[in-house]
Every structure is written in C-alpha cells, then in structure tokens.
Amino acid sequence: MRLSSNVKPYVLLLIVGTFLLLGYVYFNFFSERLNRDILIDEDQKSTSLSRLVFRSRIRNMVSPEKLLYKQPSVLVGRTDVVSVTPWLAPIIWEGTFDPVLVDNIYKPMNLTIATTVFAIGKYVRFLQDFLDTAEKHFMVGFNMRYYVFTDRPHDVPSVNLSQGRHLSVIQVPGSNRWQEISAQRMEIIQTTIERQIRGEADYIFCLDVDSKFHAHWGSESLGRLVAVIHPGYYEQTRDRFPYERRPASTAYIPMDEGDYYYGGAMIGGFVEDVYTLAKVCRTQFEEDAGNSIEAAWQEESHLNRYLLYNKPSKVLSPEYLWQDFKAKTKEVKVIRFSGVIKNYAEVRSNV
User: Fold this and answer.
1) Which domains does the chain have, with CATH numbers?
2) What average pLDDT does range 30-37 have in this prediction?
3) Model confidence, pTM
C-alpha cells in the first residue's frame, strides 16, 4: 500500500517518537540500577555538598598599552643574591622587579586584599603604628580589608583609611601564655576564612602586629602561596635552622632536610591556599597537644614543616621581614617591613 505524501511526515514523526520513548525507558532503567549498585559514602557526600567557595583565581598578566618602563635584560641584574628557588619560584629582592609595571598589571584586576593581625593583651599598643604605616606603604591603591583580632576591642585606635580600605574588629579570648595565643592563631584564621574572608577577598596576608612598614610593599608579593625568609637565618645552613627536631612532633623536620627557614610573622597567598595551610597546621597543633607536645617555635615550626612539603609559589626576601635591632646588611637594599624593638618581659605575661 502506498502512502500519500500528506501522510508520510506523520509516519516519520511517529517512528522518531517511538525511538525517543524507548531510549528514555532504557536510560531510566539503567540509571536506577546504577544508583542502586554504587554506594555513596555519607561523609564524602557531606563534604562535597559543603565544599567552600573562594574568590581567588588565576588571571592573565595583562599590561596596559603605552605604559613606559625600563627595558628588562637577561644579562644585567642582581648578581649578589639568588632570585629563584630550585623549584623555580621567584625570590623577591629590590632590583628584581619593576614596581610600576607590576602594580599596573594587578590594579586593573580590582582585587581585594585581606590582612589579618592579632592584637592580644598589651600587643594592642603596636596597632596604631602598624595601621598608620600600612596605609602609607602596604598595597597602596588596592582594596584592603583589615581584620583585627583582639581581646580589647575598645582599645583599637581610630585610623584614617584611604578609599576602598576597611577595618573589622573581631573579639577573641585573651590568654596568660603567649604560646597559647600563637597556637590559637591558625584556628582563628581558618574559621574566619570559612565564615567571612573567603567571600570578601582574593588574597590574604597574615602579619604580626608588633611590626611597621618602612617602604613600598605592593603587588610584587602576590602569589598562590607566599612565604618570607627569616632575617636571622638566611645566611645559615639548614643544620643551623631552629626546626622542630623531635620525631614525636608533627612539625618534625630531619637534620638533612629543609629549604629555607621561613618567618612566622608573614603568611600570604590566595585565600584558599592560606586556608588549607591554616587548617593543616591547626590539625597538627591539636595532634601534638593530644600527645603533650609543644613544637619548638609553635606555629612557626608547623609552618616550616608545611612549606617544606608544600612549596611556596613565591618567596619574599628578608626585606619583607627585618628586625629593628638588626643592622642592615649589604644584600638588603631596602627594609620594607620590620619587627619593632620591645621588652618581651613587659608585653608577654609568662616571660
């Protein structure tokens, strides 16, 4: 029997519809069976549902057109210092970057930088100079959010902040032992990132309050995970580093291992990367505490252990963490950030 030309389109639609229906039934049958056969661990399910979301992301290095700067050279530059690690992370020294070029690359990204600082007990007295000098030298021209953790919120000074820069005061418990304050720092940073910072900032720096800025500290310091070389040990060999040497501690580093000795007064990077660092160090702290162990230099010991096996993507030279009592050496052309001279017996309760 021949079908008329008017009927043929309807027959084709009927055939196509039949195949689609059979495919739908087939797919649902096997999907249901597959779901019955594969068991999902409840902890894994909970973790995936509660995964944190961060603002940080890698961006292209776009330079503005017609920006004038000194031509770089592959033959002329600093020869008195090493400016790259064995794993090819840059070590930032004066003379190894162009601050105008770097800031002009990063500023159009409209980044927000978070800065955490702990002003516990008598350390609140250092907050005024820290904030005043930060406004002059630290990430000038960038959106900034300071997070001040203190047990004395009423003693936090009033500071004139530039446009796009904000300060939040977060009250935390005090302590009679400075070692306990050091131990709590990682936990507080971790929880504050979870609750607040991850939705407000792209990068984060965790700095010591008993310090002052003296010169430009800009976007040359930005990276996924950023550490600073301790000024007291950059000329020493690894066997002289004050790592935690007891195998019973989770901060343990063997005598024949180690890259640099990193200062605990500065941790930086993507919010997500610093969050992971803080979370791991906190877990190690708690494990040591459960075994009645306190690492040699508390959080700094755990930080150095973490950075040995999780290499920083950028390393800041001692220019970014000097000490006021220490004379400037020939390698250090400029001091950008430095710990102030203080009487530890007076500002620390248990010293």
Assistant:
1) 97-235+262-273+313-347 (3.90.550.10)
2) 38
3) 0.83
